[in-house]
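Below is how a single chain appears once it has passed through the pipeline. First comes the sequence as given, then the structure the pipeline wrote out for it. We keep one example in the README because the format questions we get most often are answered faster by looking than by reading.
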Amino acid sequence: MSYELYALYKKQCEVAGPARLAFYEKLIKEGNNPGFAAMLALQSPAGTKGTERAFLEGMHDWAGDMNPENRKLLFEKAHKAGVSTQGKKYIGGLGKPDDQMAWVSTMDDVKAVCKEKGYSCEGAVDYQAPEQKFEKKRMAEDVVGRFMQEAVAKDPDIKHNKKAMKELRAKVVKKHSKENLK
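Resulting structure:
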């Protein structure tokens, strides 16, 4: 029995949970080879989950099933932002098309993005992000900015007056948010 294969499949079973790991170990003790034991314990063909091959399968034409107009827009946004799409797949859950991190080529890329952005994922790549403390804000900056732009469009003279812009910001936040938050 190859120790490398045993260790690889054991790790996959550990990720799947203690019951699957115990079943895997039981099957190994009964004399089954690691691949077959993992297949039974994980209830999926060995090597299909958690492997680069499974992740990359069909990647060369991942955008082929997309609407041609949407595909064109997706790649235009990426290229306009300077994102290299060569040999990469876009995963919308990781970011917008103009976000370099949303274009991945390996499972390690996906895990690295999840770690950096604090995301959890489950599927071809399994990663559980650490708990994050959520801090409530009275109003998000992009929303404040949007309302301020609308007000400035109506009265462009405000834009050149710092005091008026500060007052406008306070007015927007007060009007469009809950007072009991920061």
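The longest strand covers residues 89-90.

See the next section for the split statistics.
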